[in-house]
Design goal:
Layout: E1 2-6, E2 15-19, H1 21-32, E3 41-43, H2 49-54, H3 56-76, E4 82-84, H4 86-92, H5 95-101, H6 109-125, H7 130-133
Parallel strand pairs: 3-4
Antiparallel strand pairs: 1-2
Helix pairs in contact: 1-3, 4-6
Length: 137
């Protein structure tokens, strides 16, 4: 499964989903090829013993999907995709934080991972504040 979250700059709440990698690739290409107003935030995928243990097939799908996203960015003149490490994102935004934002996607683990990346990007862009993620400070 590939999780993703889309935030239209005119909206307050992102649209999350998760799809099999091939369906995601087709839909993202059809929906975004030719657009000029896109910023990609991608989980930095690191090949290591842990990722190889989880799923070699999933590892290949992740690499293919990242390649497609990189191609779309170059082809359409989008800004360079921004990469974030999963551990860095998880330290800042957990499920409780997503719930507080009103972004939690019940039963969609991969979509929630994408929402975490979007929340960190939104924080860095000033679209949300730390208090939006952690009300106690």
């Amino acid at each position: 499964m590939t999780g993703y979250a889309i935030l239209d700059t005119t909206e307050e709440v992102p649209t999350p989903n998760q799809l099999p990698y091939d369906v995601f690739q087709e839909r993202i290409f059809e929906a975004y090829n030719g657009r000029i107003d896109v910023q990609l935030v991608i989980e930095r995928f690191v090949i290591n013993a842990g990722s190889m243990k989880k799923s070699r097939e999933g590892m290949h799908h992740a690499i293919q999907t990242i390649g497609l996203l990189e191609f779309l960015a170059r082809h359409n003149g989008w800004p360079t995709p921004l990469y974030q490490l999963p551990a860095d994102v998880m330290r800042l935004v957990d499920n409780k934080s997503l719930r507080h934002l009103g972004w939690y996607a019940r039963g969609m683990e991969h979509a929630n991972d994408a929402l975490r990346h979007l929340a960190v990007w939104s924080l860095k862009q000033g679209r949300i504040s730390r208090k939006d993620i952690h009300p106690s400070g």
